[in-house]
Amino acid sequence: MPKLVVVDHPLVQHKLSLMRRKETPTAEFRQLVKEIALLLGYEICRDLPLEDVDVETPLEMARVKMLAGKKLCLVSVLRAGNGLLEGMLDLIPSARVGHLGLYRDHVTLQPVEYFYKVPSDISERPVILVDPMLATANSAIAAVTKVKASGATDIKYACLLAAPEGVAKFHAAHPDVPVFTAAVDRGLNQQGYIMPGLGDAGDRIYGTR
Predict the structure, then answer these.
(1) Which member of 94, 95, 145, 163 has the greatest number of CB atoms within 10 A?
(2) Which residues make beta-bridge pairs with 61?
(3) Per-residue pLDDT tens over the stretch 134-147
(4) 108: annotated active-site residue
């Protein structure tokens, strides 16, 4: 599929397999989400622009590379996106942070927005949307539509797991937005959950049911 990047690094795959186990406790699951997010972030940021700057080392002046332009913005799709957000911030501590509150109506499977707060200059920044699961893609499409309405044009979407149906639907709505994920699973069940998946990511991150 176009604009789909599966990060198949051995460490990512190992940590994801540990997360899939139903007996993995909340604290370990939360830590694994954070660690995978950092590894995903490394790949997502591969094409950030650089500029030449002069620095003085202990020995001499040197022309070196540093990030150019506005600092990127991480937008967490609440609440489960915050698990990924922590790992991304460990990698990019200077990033600006936005939050988008969406929950899925379990009858219609459609997203319902309840909160939105992003930097006022988000239109000038690269944006990484973080949400653990790309399942039906309804929430993901709504999230990208929302940040586009705020002026963002350079957008990437990061998740732990994706379903083929969700990826196809997402790219039909937003063909310009690449998706980065640790795995694409078999598909969705009748309740819209990814199979074999890892369960409800938010509940497993926060220990709720």
Answers:
(1) 163
(2) 56
(3) 999 999 999 999 99
(4) yes
Q: What are the angstrom distances between the C-alpha of 188 and each of 69, 158, 193?
A: 40, 19, 5
pLDDT tens digits, 140-199: 999 999 999 999 999 999 999 999 999 999 999 999 999 999 999 999 998 889 999 999
Taken in order of first residue, the domains within the chain and their CATH numbers are 4-206 (3.40.50.2020)
Identified catalytic residue from 20, 24, 96, 203: 203
- Burial label, 141 (beta-carbon count in 10 A; 0-12, 13-18, 19+): buried
Query: How far is residue 99 from each of residues 13, 19, 116, 143, 157, measured CA to CA in Å?
Result: 28, 25, 6, 10, 14
From the list 20, 79, 154, 200, the catalytic residue is 200
Cα gap 196→209, rounded to integer Å = 19
Instruction: Let me know if 200 is a catalytic residue.
Output: yes
Q: Which of 47, 104, 105, 145 is catalytic?
A: 104
DSSP string over 148-182: HHTT--SEEEEEEEE-HHHHHHHHHH-TTS-EEEE
- pLDDT score recorded for residue 69: 85
Task: With residue 115 as reference, give the H or E element that holds it.
Answer: strand 111-117
